Fold:
Amino acid sequence: MFAHSHRGATFFVSAAVIAFASLPASGQLVGVKDLTQRDIQLPAEALSKADLAEKNKNFCIPNGGNADGVSVSPDHLALTLSITSAGLSANRSAPSLKVTVRLKNLGPGPVSVPWTDHRVASALMSSSGDSQKFGFTVATVDLFLGKAHTTDPMMSLNGEAALWMQLDNAEQSIKLKAGQWVDLTFRATVLCKVADPNECLKRLRQENPRVSAWWYQRQLTREMKGECIYQTGAYTELEIDSKPTEVKVDIPVNLMLDRP
Structure:
């Protein structure tokens, strides 16, 4: 599981878009993305003024520090997250969990969410005098064994999906009208916390494991004064938990893992 911070941390993901459904009438699937198919050559992004300042660690002295908060939209409250499929397989290295999550809009109005599978450049959001504010939105999806945000003493899931967009950029986002949804597929590795990883395999074979997902969407900002970054910000826009879903386990009975 990757740690999250409200201090404007940088997030990375390497993935490829497999298919986009055409935009049909409301009440249908409008987008499909498969992040299990990795693309080594990521699209080149022209860095913004704020991106270059962050890359070069050009922060104002003294600076305004970090800002965080919550930005809640009534429309966002109508979005739901569910797991439509979850399958666990294993090879000689480690068990791997493949899941498909569904984000659906049950509200009366349209909602736009990030839909770009690589980090985008910070975009200018506002300016006043010698101050400029840059930012983008990122949504990550994390997985948990059992209920969302719970910790299993024996195993954890390592891997997340991440989607990006600039504010009001239709090419980097996807709009969900009332009743519409998108499906997102990605993988996570099962990490065993005990000395013998075969004990984890034994438990996975014997039990009916369940998995939950967490959609965490926030806006990350950089406020600049002149050519240096004066303040960073992270503002939570959306948090949705799915219900636990049973995992289909497909692990050969004779498979044994090497001890670390």
Remarks:
- Residues 1-26 have pLDDT under 50 and may be disordered.
- Residues 210 and 246 are 4 Å apart (CA to CA).
